[in-house]
Amino acid sequence: MKAMMLEKIADVSKEEPLKQLDISIPEPSYGQILLHISACGVCRTDLDEIEGRTPPKFPVILGHQVIGTIVRANNVKNFKEGDRVGVGWIFHSCGECSYCLKGEENLCDFFQATGRDVNGGYAEYMVAYSDFVYKIPDNFPDIEAAPLLCAGAIGWRSLRLTGIKNSYNVGLYGFGASGHIVIQIIKYLYPESSVFVFTRSKDEQSLAHKLGAKWAGNITDEPPELMDVSIDTTPAYLPVIQALKNLKKGGKLVINAIRKEPYDKDVLKNIEYEKHLWMEKEIKSVANVTRRDIAEFLQIAKKIQIKPQVHTYPLQKANQALKDLKNGNIPGAKVLINNE
Ligand SMILES: [Zn+2]
Ligand SMILES: [Zn+2]
């Protein structure tokens, strides 16, 4: 099968990190399925892996927003051959530790990430545990379903962790794959809330207006109102400082980023306790995702009929998709498609 393989840490802006290889199709072990992949989303976390901020086990096939059809099942009860399913970031967890037992499997010490700790979806086939895959609602074509699995599911987890209530002012810092789905959830589930979008990209600002944002501006622009809660999905530190400053008293900032890039870390020296933290402001990070987040989100997406904006690339053009994601000049979610 064709696979886009990552063999070592690389700089996406200077080189093509993935090599196209022909390797053998993997064998599903007990409780696993073999998927013929039709679409796989490209995520900012893939850049974090390639650039070494969350290093994978090399060599690895990236990709954790996978849609495919089951072609073989090894001792599996909940799915059968021919079913269309999705695989997200959570590939497996131990199922026995205190975190797993209370549904916080995202915090499990043995958490395995798809496309980092095991091979993922930048290929024609992959294996997955049948207990860790999801039926995809029929109303979503493959390419629109792929970004729901990470950007959407983790966006939903981030939104849950903010403790949002109807009528809240919500700030979104960064407006990529996750943000443009989160705004649609807010508009549907919390219709009296107002959304304020902070992004340097003019295209993303106009997409924000189109999706119902009350205000959209640059990261450093002064918003017309303060926020009850905010979500930061950017790779930088400046938005963290800005988001804290723009919170109301008792407000909460949720950071949905697996790693921050180091280039503007110095701005943290400007943090002032009175301005950014005093009056019970809170910060919380989002780690991984649980099966519940993914399953719940797929149902919400179906109800709302979320329309992810996607830009597709053939599998062999994965390097280009990564470069476009890094440069941030094409709005919406990037999805690799298998044309065979
Ligand atoms: Zn992701
Ligand atoms: Zn566990």
Identify the notable features of this structure and list them briefly.
340 residues, alpha/beta, six-stranded parallel beta sheet, 26% strand, binds zinc ion
How is the topology of this model organized?
Blueprint: E1 2-6, E2 18-22, E3 32-42, H1 44-50, E4 60-61, E5 66-73, E6 84-87, E7 90-92, H2 98-101, E8 112-113, E9 125-129, E10 134-135, H3 142-162, E11 169-173, H4 179-189, E12 194-198, H5 202-210, E13 215-217, E14 227-232, H6 238-245, E15 247-255, H7 273-277, E16 282-285, H8 291-304, E17 310-314, H9 318-327, E18 333-337
Parallel strand pairs: 11-12, 11-14, 12-13, 14-15, 15-16, 17-18
Antiparallel strand pairs: 1-2, 1-4, 3-5, 3-9, 3-18, 5-6, 6-10, 7-8
Helix pairs in contact: 3-4, 3-8
The chain binds zinc ion (2 copies).
Note down, in words, how this protein is organized.
- By secondary structure, this protein is an alpha/beta fold.
- It contains nine helices and 18 strands.
- Strands 3, 5, 6, 9, 10, 17 and 18 form a seven-stranded mixed beta sheet that branches. Strands 13-12-11-14-15-16 form a six-stranded parallel beta sheet, sandwiched between helices.
- Helix 3 (142-162) crosses helix 4 and helix 3 (142-162) crosses helix 8 (291-304).
- The protein starts with a strand and ends with a strand.
- The mean pLDDT is 95.
- One zinc ion (ZN) binds at residues 93-94, 96-97, 99-100, 108, 110.
- One zinc ion is lined by residues 43, 45, 64, 89, 150.
